[in-house]
Amino acid sequence: MYQPQSKMTRMAFAASDRPEAQEALARLTSRYGASPDEDAHVIVALGGDGFMLETLHRTMALGKPIYGMNRGSVGFLMNEFSEDDLLERVNAAVRAVIYPLTMVAIDSQRRQHRALAINEVSLLRQTRQTAKLRVSIDGKVRMAELVCDGVLVATPAGSTAYNLSAHGPIIPIDARVMALTPISAFRPRRWRGALLSHTARVTIEVLEADKRPVSAVADNFEVRDVLEVHISEDRSVSMAMMFDAGRSLEERVLAEQFSG
User: Fold this and answer.
1) Which pLDDT tens digit goes with each residue over 230-247?
2) What is the 3-state secondary structure (H, E, C) of the chain?
3) Closest-CA residue to 192 (of 181, 203, 178, 177)
4) Contact, 106 vs 119, CB < 8 A?
5) What is the spatial distance between Cα 9 and Cα 32, in angstroms, rounded to a whole number?
6) pLDDT, tens digit, 9 for 90 and up, residues 46-84
7) Residues of 167-203 as b/e, b for ≥16 C-beta within 10 angstroms?
8) Which of 17, 37, 49, 244 is catalytic?
9) How far apart are CA 15 and CA 34, in angstroms?
10) Which of 21, 104, 169, 256 could join 16 in a cystine, given CB atoms 3.0 to 4.6 angstroms apart?
């Protein structure tokens, strides 16, 4: 976490398709003006958490910080919406720098698919049959057979999303670990997952793939009928989200651990 040093004066805006986001976009651009993404100091995203992820993916190559305001249904990654003093809020905000996961998925035709995930990479059963998976960490088999609805690897930023719903651990944003979390594990029934070093390389093989097909999803990018998936953190790519002072992402993740 750190305070931005140079004054930000040029803002670009992006909004989800929701009517309230589109209305906010029209009012804010009329009031503050709008720069192209390439020329802006910051990109203001209007929507929910899903739209924040879309904006981060879309602008990843630009290296621009994203300041989100909630105009959606879920706003864990967003700041409260207000039209007033937006430049002042942006310039007082703190940044959370996050690193994505790289997913390399090999499908039943031996085709290789590569994608980045900001929240998590998840493997999910495609039919009524449970998935049967083999889990290896850094080339060593750690679980020879996991029978489940699926399994996921989550970043600290994504640990409060699908990972938390699957009863995985909440991870402090600056912790250099990833969560490996089963989804409805049937065997071993009591296995709750593991915390892994951020340098770990996770390989998940699909057993009995013809009978028990599995899909792999990196955020919103899906590959069907996978045979194996390789997951690792990619520190060559970094993204910055901006949060109002006193409501940093670090603080939100900490507060989430004490919520009911």
Assistant:
1) 999 999 999 999 999 888
2) CECCCCCCCCEEEEECCCHHHHHHHHHHHHHHCCCCCCCCCEEEEEECHHHHHHHHHHCHHHCCCEEEEECCCCCCCCECCCCCCHHHHHHHCEEEEECCEEEEEEECCCCEEEEEECCEEEEEECCCCCEEEEEEECCEEEEEEEEECEEEEECCCCCCCHHHHCCCCCCCCCCCEEEEEEECCCECCCCCCEEEECCCCEEEEECCCCCCCEEEEECCEEECCEEEEEEEECCCCCEEEEECCCCCHHHHHHHHCCCC
3) 181
4) no
5) 10
6) 999 999 999 999 999 999 999 999 998 777 889 999 999
7) ebbbbebeeebbbbbbbebeeeeeeebbebeeebebb
8) 49
9) 13
10) 21
Rounded Cα–Cα distance for residues 13 and 66 (Å): 10
| 103: amino acid identity, one letter | M
Q: How far apart are CA 97 and CA 153, in angstroms?
A: 19
Q: Enter the pTM of the model.
A: 0.88
- The answer to whether 21 touches 45, Cβ cutoff 8 Å, is no
**Residue in this structure with the two tokens 């399994």, named with its chain if needed:** 151
Contacts 24+ apart (CB under 8 A), 164-168: 164/256, 167/192, 168/193
Q: Which amino acid makes up residue 75?
A: G
Q: How many CB atoms lie within 10 A of CB 133?
A: 25
